[in-house]
Amino acid sequence: MQQAPFPLSPSLWAATAAAPPPTDPLQASAQADVLVIGGGYAGLSTALHLAERGVKVVLLEAREIGFGGSGRNGGQVIPGLKYDPDAMLAMFGPERGERLLRFAGATADAVFDLIERHAMDVPHVRNGWIQGAHNPAALRTAHDRAAQWARHGVDAQPLDRAQVARLIGSDKYLGGWVDKRAGAIQPLSYARGLARAALNAGAVLHTETPVTGLKRVDGKWTASTARGPSVVADRVVMCTNAYGGGLWPGLKPSIIDANTFQVATAPLSERLRAGIFPEGHVTSDTRNLLLYFRLDHQGRLLMGGRGPFREPRGDADWAHLERVMVKMFPQVAGTPFEYRWCGRVAITRDYMPHLHEPQPGLLVDIGCQGRGVGLQTSMGRAMAEYVATGDANALPVPLSPIVPFPLYGLRRLYVNAVVTWYRMTDGGV
């Protein structure tokens, strides 16, 4: 995600995160077995798992660790993908589909296991995710979704309206389902924890070092940087998500770089906190323009959702979320909003994570679809295994060609049209 171009207070996560480990810009040209581009969850996880294998790895980040989506998301750790188990099996067949289900189902485990194993300074909770249903059709879908995951051994349960109201603190949903594998983290602290773990394992991390070009000569990759020095490596793993820009031809038009907005209140009183997420769940709903909300580790109520495709121009661009929050939770009316932030996310054509290998030795990972914390942590581990061993079965999804969105230059127009349509079909809060 990207910092807004006008003065704002820091994001909630930047204001409350653990200190980052010390890193420096690249000062002199270097060599590595593997170069990782991007200091978010995917890049850091890849660097960590490669370094633990004894691979000489250098990571270059254009800004600071977790500057993009890894430091600006809602902090919800939700396993699975956008598609339900039956759909994934139909899309990929029984063998690969089952492998993908196991991978997707374990993504939350990967996050919480790393936090524990490396004793990371990351506030976290793991009491489950509730998906609230906003209309009768969505309620049927939610209950079917719970049943599908339950058939695969997951502790997933359907919920009625009263159950959802009690566990969330709002009566605006008709019911839903709960996935007890899920939880929440302080997302920027987690990115910084991954960076510290990667450094301790022997990876070399350089921040404030934008990569400006990639070139393959005589079987080696050379990455030029805006600072002047370059890195030569046998392999490159590119993990820039919505921020790859023009670094590789055709990559930017293969995603929609939509904007997502979030607000957070001041810490709630003990009285209010007793009735809002009393058991520590996190929530997102079944709307096409979904809403997602939770309490943070200091008792603030956080809500995220749609925003203008353009960059924000002022606090008014968050006003719709503030209104929605009070409609969803009228008990917080009058509580001041302390934080407003936003950024870019990468949406692929099929709402799946994509892995590309456009040239030998260059692996590109792109697309989170709202599940990036666990997904990209696990993807980094899988990519590290693939790069180290060459075993394509280590990858959860098959390598695919880079395919652009049609009429990419008009994306703002058709995204706005889709948003308008979804707003009408989703109904009011």
Automatic annotation (TrEMBL):
Q: Tell me the domain of life.
A: Bacteria
Cellular component terms per the entry's GO annotation: cytoplasm
Q: What sequence ranges are listed for the domain FAD dependent oxidoreductase?
A: 33-385
Q: Which UniProt keywords apply?
A: Oxidoreductase
Alphabetically, the GO molecular function entries are: oxidoreductase activity
Q: Which InterPro entries match?
A: FAD-dep_OxRdtase, FAD/NAD-bd_sf
Can you say what this protein is called?
Oxidoreductase
* Species for this entry: Achromobacter arsenitoxydans SY8
